[in-house]
Amino acid sequence: MVHTSLDVVDEKISAMGKALVDQRELYLGLLYPTEDYKVYGYVTNSKVKFVMVVDSSNTALRDNEIRSMFRKLHNSYTDVMCNPFYNPGDRIQSRAFDSTVTSMMIQVC
Amino acid sequence: MEAAAGGGCGSGPPLLLSEGEQQCYSELFARCAAAGAAGGGPGSGPPEAARAVPSAATAAAGPVADLFRASQLPAETLHQITELCGAKRVGYFGPTQFYIALKLIAAAQSGLPVRIESIKCELPLPRFLMSKTDAEIRFGNPTELHGTKVQIPYLITEKNTFKRMDDEDKQQETQSPTMSPLASPPSSPPHYQRVPLSHAYGKLRSNTEQMHPAPYEARQPLVQPEGPSSGAPGTKPPRHQASLIRSFSVEREPQDNNSNYPDEPWRITEEQREYYVNQFRSLQPDPSSFISGSVAKNFFTKSKLSIPELSYIWELSDADCDGALTLPEFCAAFHLIVARKNGYPLPEGLPPTLQTEYLQAAFPKPKRECALFDSYSESMPANQQPRDLNRMEKLSVKDMADFPVPTQDVTSDDKQGLKSTADEALPKDVSEDPATSKDSNSLKARPRSRSYSSTSIEEAMKRGEDPPTPPPRPQKTHSRASSLDLNKVFQPSVPATKSGLLPPPPALPPRPCPSQSEQAPEAEIHPQLNRAPSQAAESSPAKKDIPYSQPPSKPIRRKFRPENPATENQDTSTTVGGPASAATVKPHAAVQKQSSKQKKAIQTAIRKNKEANAVLARLNSELQQQLKEVHQERIALENQLEQLRPVTVL
């Protein structure tokens, strides 16, 4: 399902085109018949995509919440990138990053 | 004394103990002996009051075994040590055997093979992990001791140790529970919590050890009395661990400065700080600027830690997450790497002693004051830290404050007092070790076994170290007066040259007089012969040259003279023409007159030449001297460049 959402994200990005770089891209709507969940996409300036999958059974998160979550995620990610020992593309093993993500998820739940 | 006693026994190889080691070992021995109910009387030797006179007692096997186990060495190593030290041979642990065993333990903990030869090296004190924070007790300040505590009239050289003990005492009172288990085997000296890092990193230990033993020993007596009292639990072990961690930090640096918080592995000692600063400078000449991520990555990769670990260390130390390391951040990262190399698990969060503010506060102040100040400020932020970190911080506060388990009870006064005293004490052995053994809790009994990889990092560090510490520049003595080095250099060669009687005269400038040109070629030959003249000798050889060259010139002159007269004769003869007889007579007379005149002229010319020679020779010698100095500088610079190159290119 994530791969599908990635395709959708790519589609969106290519649709953006031009010089328009919209950092926030909330994509709602990938709802499978059996699983209802929402996938949010977020693209950074460096074309790094964050995909967030939220279970719809949860009270729908407000748009702002999603945005703030993505912002925090982006900040954590840049902190991780600062580490010279981190190779882009590797699995992120930063504890701070993990803790941030976990706290966010807990917050939502 | 102990050394004498130890060395005196001849049962084993000669045991050379440093003063600090003697104290430590005697203390340990005393404890073992006391525990073993041998009950040596209070040691009268060192003012530190070694408990018992080791030489008169034997350590009971039980306490000794506990002690050895506390060293956290594998069982077979302990067996080896026991065998080597001769205890099995003689059947008991006499002072000699005990000392040898302790030394072997230190060697094993440093990663050295357990052999008799190992004890010949300068080793850090062996580390023993004690749940009880003997270390804290170690610095027993008698006055501080509460009634229950023991008296231990250890003379703590450092006032701060006294202070520390005060705190410790108080803390001990509050918590003694952990002490109790330790109390039972008093032989287990918790104070030696040093991580034998120093050994791996360069034995500055010898200096520190001497300091440390005293406090350690002081602690010991305290431990014993402390044991029975049971009080606060828990905190002691963590404190212990913290002390372990500290001791690690103590060992870190091969400088002679011992700031010591042996129990606080996360505290950077002065020597370590200097080392880190030097390393920083090697990567980035401006201490107030930062090291870029790639440079730092290359540098830290040399430590051969795994990338995830390095990544984690970076994450911890780069507080502002800017991808670059300022000096405090760099020191923190370096310290964490060192800790990791020595077996300490990385902390969950950046320890307070390694935080940027803390380190920054420490940096401007030179040495101890900084550390003291840091410990103080550290204790403040420590409050927010998790318990373990708190414990560690407490340790950092010179162990004293840390004792009260509940975070920072440590009265700021104590800390302050500690700090001020610690200032003086820092250089001496701040025996932090005894104090905080919080390490045990927070760090969970780190394996003491030294990893051999530590030696590799030591080498890497040393390699890195070499560049930043270039050899002292040669004296830039461009003064005319010959430099000492040159003198020394020249003096040996002077006799040689003199004996050779072929002093290499410096290349003399062309002689002003044509007649002197005769001498010039002669003189020039000599310089070519020997280009490295001793300047001091040059003047004399030059002078010798003068007479030497004079004779050759003389023959030349003489040749000239005969030639001149001959030419003159010819001239006169040709000019005369006329009556042959008259011509012949005149030429003869004329020749004779001319020859005499020529002789005088030549002699005056010779004198002038000699003077000119002397002056020129002196000038030449001075110039040669300057040339040598410049050469030396150049060589030094080239060396520096070579050394710096591998560090930066990597």
Structure in a nutshell:
With 109 residues, chain A is of the alpha+beta class.
Description:
The complex is a heterodimer of chains A (about 110) and B (about 650). Chain A is built from 3 helices and 3 strands; from the N terminus they run αβββαα. With about 110 residues, chain A is α+β, with helices and mostly antiparallel strands. Chain A has a single domain, classed as 2-Layer Sandwich (Beta-Lactamase). Chain A has a 3-stranded antiparallel beta sheet with strand order 1-2-3, sandwiched between helices. In chain A, a hairpin with a 5-residue loop joins strand 2 and strand 3. In chain A, helix 2 runs antiparallel to helix 3. The two termini of chain A are about 20 Å apart. About 10% of the residues of chain A have low confidence. With about 650 residues, chain B is mainly α. Among the domains of chain B are: about 100 residues, Recoverin, domain 1 (Orthogonal Bundle); about 90 residues, Recoverin, domain 1. Helix content of chain B is about 60%, strand content about 0%. In chain B, strands 1-2 form a two-stranded antiparallel ribbon. In chain B, helix 18 runs antiparallel to helix 19 and helix 24 crosses helix 26. Chain B starts with a helix and ends with a helix. The interface between A and B is medium-sized, with 13 and 17 residues. Chain B: GO terms for molecular function: calcium ion binding. Chain B: Keywords: Calcium, Coiled coil, Metal-binding. Chain B: This is RalBP1-associated Eps domain-containing protein 2. Chain B: Pfam families: EH.
